[in-house]
Amino acid sequence: MIILGVILIVIGVIASIPVLYSIGIALAVIGIILAVLGNTGKAIGGRAHWY
Predict the structure, then answer these.
(1) Are the beta carbons of 10 and 25 closer than 8 angstroms?
(2) Of 3, 21, 25, 31, which residue is least crowded by CB atoms under 10 Å?
(3) Radius of gyration of the chain (CA)
(4) Closest C-alpha to 7, from 42, 17, 20, 16
């Protein structure tokens, strides 16, 4: 999720598409939150790790 967010941010900046940029930031932030919660040992949605 983090990697997809970064890819969308890069494409949004290069192609000057603000919607992709915004979606990329949202995905990256959500991915970071899920990674942090997964590392604390809490299972989220029945899964301890999100890839």
Answers:
(1) no
(2) 3
(3) 13
(4) 20
pLDDT band at 25; cut points 50, 70, 90? very high
Please report, for residues 13, 19, 50, the alpha-carbon distance to residue 6 in angstroms, rounded to integers and kept in the order given.
Answer: 11, 14, 16
3-state secondary structure 36-47: HHHHCCCCECCE
Give yes or no for a contact between 24 and 6, defined as CB atoms under 8 angstroms apart. Answer: yes
- E strand residue ranges, 1-51: none
Predicted pLDDT at 28: 92
Q: Are 21 and 13 in contact (CB under 8 A)?
A: yes
